[in-house]
């Protein structure tokens, strides 16, 4: 299961956002090998298609797909030198697949800001610089090691790694994040295991005042190059305390089609380049997370590793056709396709995998 690390300066609403998100937590028993620590929550990815498919199949239960959110200790300036909980912070974030950076945008004299004033752009740069400093150290060490190996003899792989590391170092020393650096296919492979902090996808949540959360004129203070969402964490926390039917009515009053939390979850899912396919029957309807571009045998392997090895074919129907016609009806109407090992899965595919024994 993919992990999103929630980071931010102290007193920006980071832990409140995490606590609110985990009110949407799913039953971990449905996700094998999932050991949950106190600061980790497995959160459902909202998907209206799941309920419709379940209804069409008259399923006994529904199992959504999910993402892990990790509440990482607040960072302070100097974290890369071990200030505050810096070393722990950097170690924890290195294990995640994506960073959700919470930034303070609200004014409240009762909530102390570590720098004395609210300045979202400045605060973002504090954390980004700490990540960059840590990455410079990592890249420089790897460059030194690669340089030593190249003295003994150059290889295509070492040259690709040295080239990628050089690009990273130039970017980092110029104050840029490495996730904006384009690499060749060989370079990507060469540095795949490096796990740089600034190479991870990033989504920014600006924790705004209540009246700004639904303002269509809101302009991000973080500039056009950072993907940012305006969220009032206080309002989101209050919404999650309401009965489900009241939540929808309240959002409608605000002119919103979905909650801020759901927008955050969906954006994380998109940023990680994930899609969802479904299996649906009388026993259960279930959503499965896969990477965009994955082929049918690998998608089957997400259900069980043996399915990938024993894959024969996939019977695939678009979820809308499944809801409208059912599996047998879709087959009769020619909407169900037989796909082989080279089929690239599409978001919303509803599948029945045929595997050997």
TrEMBL record:
Keywords attached to this entry: ATP-binding, Magnesium, Metal-binding, Nucleotide-binding
CDD domains given in the database record: TGS_YchF_OLA1, YchF
GO cellular component: cytoplasm
Residues of the OBG-type G domain: 2-251
Coiled-coil region(s): none
Presence of keyword Nucleotide-binding: yes
Domain TGS: 273-355
Cofactors demanded by this protein: Mg(2+)
Pfam families according to UniProt: MMR_HSR1, YchF-GTPase_C
Keyword presence, Magnesium: yes
InterPro entries associated with the record: ATPase_YchF/OLA1, Beta-grasp_dom_sf, G_OBG, GTP-bd, P-loop_NTPase, TGS, TGS-like, TGS-like_dom_sf
HAMAP family xrefs: YchF_OLA1_ATPase
General function of this protein: ATPase that binds to both the 70S ribosome and the 50S ribosomal subunit in a nucleotide-independent manner.
Family: Belongs to the TRAFAC class OBG-HflX-like GTPase superfamily. OBG GTPase family. YchF/OLA1 subfamily.
Protein name: Ribosome-binding ATPase YchF
Origin species: Candidatus Uhrbacteria bacterium RIFOXYB2_FULL_57_15
Lineage of origin: Bacteria, Candidatus Uhriibacteriota
């Amino acid at each position: 299961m993919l992990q999103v690390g929630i980071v931010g300066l102290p007193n920006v609403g980071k832990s409140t956002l995490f606590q609110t998100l985990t009110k949407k937590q799913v039953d971990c028993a449905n996700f094998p090998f999932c050991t949950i620590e106190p600061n980790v929550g497995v959160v459902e990815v909202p998907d209206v298609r799941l309920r419709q498919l379940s209804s069409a199949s008259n399923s006994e239960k529904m199992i959504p797909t999910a993402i892990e959110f990790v509440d990482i200790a607040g960072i302070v300036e100097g974290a890369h030198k071990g200030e505050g909980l810096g070393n722990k912070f950097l170690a924890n974030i290195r294990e995640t697949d994506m960073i959700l950076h919470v930034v303070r945008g609200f004014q409240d004299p009762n909530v102390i800001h570590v720098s004395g004033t609210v300045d979202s752009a400045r605060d973002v740069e504090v954390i980004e610089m700490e990540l960059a400093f840590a990455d410079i150290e990592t890249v420089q060490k790897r460059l030194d090691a690669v340089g030593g190996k190249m003295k003994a003899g150059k290889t295509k792989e070492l040259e690709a790694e040295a080239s990628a590391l050089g690009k990273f170092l130039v970017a980092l020393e110029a104050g840029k994040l490495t996730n904006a650096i384009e690499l060749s296919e060989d370079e990507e492979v060469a540095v795949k295991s490096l796990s740089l902090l600034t190479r991870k996808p990033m989504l920014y949540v600006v924790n705004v005042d209540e009246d700004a959360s639904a303002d269509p004129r809101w302009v991000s203070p973080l500039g056009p190059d950072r993907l940012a969402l305006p969220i009032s964490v206080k309002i989101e926390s209050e919404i999650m305390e309401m009965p489900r039917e009241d939540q929808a009515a309240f959002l409608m009053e605000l002119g919103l089609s979905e909650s801020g939390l759901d927008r955050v979850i969906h954006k994380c899912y998109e940023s990680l380049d994930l899609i969802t396919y479904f299996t649906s029957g009388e026993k259960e309807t279930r959503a499965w997370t896969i990477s965009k571009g994955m082929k049918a045998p690998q998608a089957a392997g997400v259900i069980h590793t043996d399915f990938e090895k024993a894959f024969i074919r996939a019977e695939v129907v678009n979820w809308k056709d499944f809801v409208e016609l059912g599996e047998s009806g879709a087959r009769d109407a020619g909407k169900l396709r037989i796909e082989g090992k080279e089929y690239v899965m599409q978001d919303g595919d509803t599948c029945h995998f045929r595997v050997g024994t």
